[in-house]
Amino acid sequence: MAHQHTPGFLKIVNDAKTRVKECTIDEMRARQAAGEKFLLIDVREESEWAAGRIPGAIHLGKGIIERDVEAKIPDSATPLVLYCGGGFRSALTADNLQKMGYTNVISMDGGMRGWKEKGLPVEKE
Fold first, then answer.
1. Superfamily name and number for 21-117
2. The pTM is what?
3. CA distance 48 to 45
4. CA angle at residue 79 from 66 to 12, to 5 degrees?
5. Which among 36, 117, 115, 112 has a CA at the least distance from the CA of 78?
6. How far apart are CA 71 and CA 74, in angstroms?
7. Are strands 80-83 and 105-108 parallel, antiparallel or unpaired?
8. pLDDT of residue 2
9. Catalytic residues
């Protein structure tokens, strides 16, 4: 069930999306199939992560990623694909990571919701 987002939230998301690169779920899967190396990062809340995630993803929630990313991923050129529930929080996070100097960040539009709608595999604890 999609969230009804507030105008203020949509304003900052749309602003961030003017600066970040996005990909579709199919484009991300094609990159995986082609053997491209990148880190798939789930930026959702801990409870969302625990409920299920895209196989192979690592968790760095939006609430802590800016604080922890440099210790976990010190190379700012590392290719990163971020996802959230639908592609809004991942766009905001991608924008912040770019401001921190990360140069190869992509937000996956559609997020976990789109992943599930396509019937793709979900990993759980």
1. Rhodanese-like domain (3.40.250.10)
2. 0.94
3. 5
4. 45
5. 36
6. 6
7. parallel
8. 55
9. 84
